[in-house]
Amino acid sequence: MRDFNAKLESDNTGFEEYMGKYGLGVRNKNRERFLDICTGNHLVLGGTNFKHKNIHKETWNSPDGYTRNQIDHAAINRRWRSSLVDVRATQGGDIGSDHNLVLTKLRLKLKIKKKYTNHQYY
Q1: Which domain of life does the protein's organism represent (predicted)?
Q2: What pTM does this model have?
Q3: What ranges in 28-77 are assigned the alpha helix state H?
Q4: Which of 8, 45, 78, 118 makes an SS bond possible with 23, Cβ 3.0 to 4.6 Å?
């Protein structure tokens, strides 16, 4: 894990498979490094795939309250992309931080592994 503070913006040209078109903010220099790691590890950025109001995309608030960015991201393996139901930032959690909580909703369909018994009939 690493704290990249990557601002992805909404332009996903060249990275359509790994991010959606609903990013927030203006890209910064960490964007390319972060996306390189995501593509190398087949990670999809969930927060950019869902259309929300900006207040539900903002994951960081400056101390003066005027600057807000989407710098925290939920990444999931590309194989599980269809399991993503929603990703949004939520305010109101009293966590003593200038970051907002990033909530990720997943719908998992897990198969029950059948037990095979070795019956011996005489």
Answers
A1: Eukaryota
A2: 0.78
A3: 30-40
A4: 8
3-state SS, one letter per residue, for 30-42: HHHHHHHHHHHCC
Total count of domains within the chain: 1
pLDDT tens track, the chain, 122 positions: 567 888 888 888 888 889 889 988 888 889 889 899 999 999 999 888 899 998 888 888 888 888 898 888 899 999 999 999 999 999 877 777 888 888 999 998 888 888 877 777 76
Sequence-ordered alpha helix ranges (H) in the chain: 30-40
* Matching residue, tokens 């939520």: 90
Residue 76 falls within a domain, yes or no? yes
Structure tokens at 94: 């009293």
Burial (Cβ within 10 Å: 0-12, 13-18, ≥19) of residue 48: buried
